[in-house]
Design a protein that fits this description.
Serine Threonine Protein Phosphatase 5, Tetratricopeptide repeat
């Protein structure tokens, strides 16, 4: 084919221009065709489309938020965030420890104990969880269980002086004085400057009746730590054993100045005040004690005695009920609550409360309770009648009111007969006092003190295990940092 007969081939630039022009024409035609029409956009059916998901935050964020809430004192929020974290990280011993501490702040000691146990399951050498669990067991008088916890963690940390001191204290509390002495010597052999070991030694010697040896051990402890309020409190206890109440009061008072948040010296000051029937001082001291450690039923009971001595019967009944919430069969609290109800004037409730007390197997004040029930029953069956109002002046007759004799109308020398009311032949009886204090020992007081077979509030030693009780610290979680 000759060149003149060949078809002409457009240049590349011309082809591109032609294509663009065609597209433009199509777009214009499309827009013109849609002019005056508004397209309705309808949602696409979601039958086959997957649902949208929000981005899930890592567990560490929940834990950090929980720690921030704990630091701010928002324990309810901290508990919720810890639950979220533990649902995804159930093996975090540090988080279980924090959950137990938060539960204590929320006054849920059962949940706290369960959380501390879970912390120990995931990390058997968690000292903070073990010490706090031991403390909760001791408050509930579960001394054998507390010793089991101490021995379990000592199997992991056999040379830990703090844990050995706790074990010695638990052994001594159970009356195992020889075992406690062996444990103390084990501590002193490796840690001769351990003040807590000398405190335990003093307590063991005092239980054996060796008061001079006990005082010597406490003086050795005080040389090692002169700021320890527990040592001063123990010296006050020894002074009470010697019946030197003045020295005991001075020691207890000094202990409160050294550590205002230590329970024992406040409770012991309250006990001294009760012995001298200084109910106002006893109320102040026991109010501090129950605020420091609300879970101790014995301080609530003693506080109730102080309040009853001040005749604050409703407040005393509240304290008795706190005792009964922990110890439903505590006889001093049962009798005290019944007596408080009577003094408040709620006789039906008091009668029921005295009957509950009388049903105890060995009620020490059974005869008194029976007398109280008979008295209340008589008063309920014979309620006092309301006094009749005096007759008004316009209701009186010419001779005055009814029963009144107008002497001006009587003839002189006329015998009017015996009087309508006669004076008793015997001497007038004095009205009994509302509350009479006995002349004997404090434990014989009917309302504000315990029953005769119960001893007055005993001095409280500072033998609680030292540990991270108030706030989780970084040191407690050092072994669990990898789980956060």
């Amino acid at each position: 084919m000759s060149p003149s007969n060949r078809p002409s081939v457009p240049s590349p630039g011309f082809v591109a221009f032609a294509i663009a022009g065609s597209i433009g024409v199509c777009l214009v035609a499309s827009l013109q065709g849609c002019a005056g029409k508004q397209e309705v956009v309808r949602p696409v059916s979601g039958a086959g489309s997957p649902p949208m998901h929000l981005i899930e935050l890592p567990p560490a964020v929940s834990y950090q938020e929980a720690r921030a809430a704990m630091a701010a004192g928002n324990f309810a929020s901290a508990r919720q965030k810890l639950d979220v974290y533990l649902a995804r990280e159930p093996r975090s011993a540090a988080a279980w420890f924090d959950a137990g501490w938060v539960a204590e702040k929320l006054s849920d000691d059962q949940a706290a104990a369960a959380d501390y146990q879970k912390a120990l399951v995931n990390e058997p050498a968690q000292v903070g969880a073990a010490l706090n669990l031991i403390r909760l067991d001791r408050v509930q008088d579960k001394i054998a269980e507390a010793e089991h916890v101490a021995r379990a963690i000592l199997a992991k940390r056999p040379d830990d002086a703090q844990l050995l001191d706790v074990l010695a204290s638990l052994q001594r509390q159970q009356g195992k004085l020889d075992d406690a002495a062996v444990t103390i010597q084990k501590v002193l052999a490796r840690h001769p400057r351990d003040a807590d070991a000398y405190k335990n030694l003093a307590a063991v010697e005092a239980d054996k009746g060796h008061l001079r040896l006990a005082e010597s051990a406490l003086n050795d402890a005080r040389k090692l730590d002169d700021k320890d309020a527990g040592i001063v409190n123990s010296l006050g206890q020894l002074a009470m054993r010697r019946e030197d109440t003045s020295a005991a009061h001075a020691f207890f008072d000094e202990a409160t100045r050294l550590d205002a948040n230590l329970l024992a010296p406040w409770a012991n000051l309250g006990a001294l005040a009760l012995q001298y029937r200084d109910y106002l001082a006893a109320d102040r001291a026991y109010a501090k004690a129950v605020a420091i450690e609300p879970l101790r039923w014995d301080t609530h009971l003693a506080h109730a005695w102080a309040l009853e001595g001040l005749k604050h019967f409703q407040e005393a009944r509240t304290e008795y009920e706190k005792v009964l919430a922990v110890r439903p069969q505590q006889e001093d609290a049962l009798y005290g609550r019944a007596n408080a109800l009577k003094l408040e004037g709620d006789l039906p409730a008091a009668l029921v409360a005295f009957k509950t007390y009388a049903q105890l197997p060995r009620a020490a004040r059974l005869k008194e309770a029976q007398a109280q029930m008979a008295s209340i029953d008589l008063r309920l069956k014979n309620p006092p009648q309301a006094a009749k109002p005096a007759p008004l002046a316009n209701e009186r007759g010419a001779g005055g009111s009814a029963g009144e004799v107008d002497l001006s109308r009587l003839p002189i020398g006329t015998d009017t007969g015996p009087a309508a009311t006669q004076l008793p032949s015997g001497p007038p009886e004095a009205a009994p006092a509302a509350t009479q204090l006995p002349s004997g020992s404090p434990e014989a007081a009917p309302a504000a003190t315990p029953s005769p077979e119960k001893s007055p509030p005993a001095p409280i030693p500072d033998d609680s295990p030292k540990g991270n009780f108030e706030k989780p610290a970084a040191a407690v979680h050092a072994s669990a940092k990898g789980q956060r």
